[in-house]
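sorry for the late reply, my laptop died twice this morning and i had to redo everyting from scratch. anyway the thing you sent over, i finally got around to it. pasting the sequence first so we're on the same page, its 408 residues, then the predicted structure underneath. double check i copied it right bc i was rushing
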Amino acid sequence: MRLNNLPSEFQQALPSLKKIQAAGYEAYFVGGCVRDVLLNHPIHDVDIATSAFPEEVKALFPKTFDVGIEHGTVMVLADNQETYEITTFRTESTYQDFRRPDQVAFVRSLKEDLKRRDFTVNALALTVDGEIIDLFAGLKDLEDKVLRAVGNPHERLHEDALRMMRGLRFMSQLGFSLEENTFAAILANHQLLEKISVERVHVEFMKLMLGSYRRDALLAFVETQCYQYCPGLAGGKEALLKIADLPERPLASESQVWALLLSVLQTPLTEINSFLKHWRCSNQVIKEVQQLVLGLKFRLEQPWTLQLIYQLGAEALQNVEELRYYFGQESQVQQVLASYQALPIHDLKDLAITGQDLLTACQAKAGKWVSLLLARCEEAVLLGELPNEKDQLLAFAKKAYPEILANL
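ok and here's the structure:
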C-alpha cells in the first residue's frame, strides 16, 4: 500500500529522513503517527526509526540532544528548526519489573524493532516514498478495527504491563475492540498492573475516560479486572458499570472525569482529597474536583443560589451544568453564566472597600473581626442589599462592627 499524499507533518520531516538515508542507513516513520495518518486522525508526534546507531545519528546533525540515548533516542534539530526524536532499531531483553527492559540492544533490522511493539496497528512503518511496511497484518486489523498484540500477547504484556491500560485506552480513543487472545491475555495478567507506577496508570486511565468510545472501554476495564489494581476502584465495579451506561458524550476535562466518578461512587467530600492523592493528582486538580462535586451534589437537587454561583465561578459553573447531562438533567450553561455575569461583584477584590478601610473607619486594631466584617459587606452587596459603593459600605460596616465584635 502506498500513500500518494503525505501529510504536511511528514513532508516537513522528510529532509531529515533523507539525510539519514543518504548516509547509507534506513529511516522510516513508525508507530502511532502512521496509524493516525491511515485513520485520518490528527498527528500529535512524528516518530522516526532508523538503522543508524545513536552516535551515527548525532554525527549527521549539527544540533542534537540526548533525550533517551540509553534507549536509542536522540532528538535532532532539523533544518526547518523543528525537533524530531529519532530512535535506533532495537531489541529488548527480559523485563524483570514488567516496566523497563533489563537490557536494550541496538540492531540494523526494522523487523526486529517492529516485533517488540505493543499492537499490530502500531507496528506499521512508512517510507519516504509513502510505502506502508506491514509485517504483522496491522493494515487488516486497522480495517477491522481490532487491537491485536504483536506476536504472543502474554509476552508483550510481561514486557510492559502498562500495555493493558494502553489497549483499553485505544479502545476508547479509536473505537476499536480487543482481539480475543489479547483480551484473554489481559484478563490473565491483570494483576501485573500492581507493578506499574500510579502516575503511568493515571495517564492511561484519564485518556480512557476522555475518549469518544468510553462505554466499551470501561466495560472491558471491568471485565478484564484491571480496575482492581487502580487506586480506590477495587470496590467500584458497580459505579464503573453505571458510568459505562451513561450517555457517551465525551467528557471535557480531567476535573470533569474525577467529579463524575466520585459523584457516582458517592465518595464523601471529606475523602476526595485522599482519593485523588492516591492517584497523584495535583493540588489544583483536587481543588477543582472538590468544587465540582460540591456544586453538582447541590445542583442535582435544587436551583443555584447567588452565594454558590459567586463561590464557584464561571468555569466550575459551566462544568457542573455540563455534568448534569449525565444524570438525566438538562444542562443550562448559558443561563447560569448569564447569572454569574450579572453579579454585582465576582471576587472579594471587586468590593469597593478593603480591610484597611475598615481599620480606619472603625478606629480599631487588626483582628479576626476584619475578615468577618468584610464577608458581611461582601454578602450584602452580593444579595443586592447594598450597592457596591464605598461610603454606603463603610456606613453599613460601622453599624455592624459592634455585633461582629460581640460574637467573637
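Residues 111 and 135 are 7 Å apart (CA to CA).
thats about all i looked at so far, will dig more tmrw
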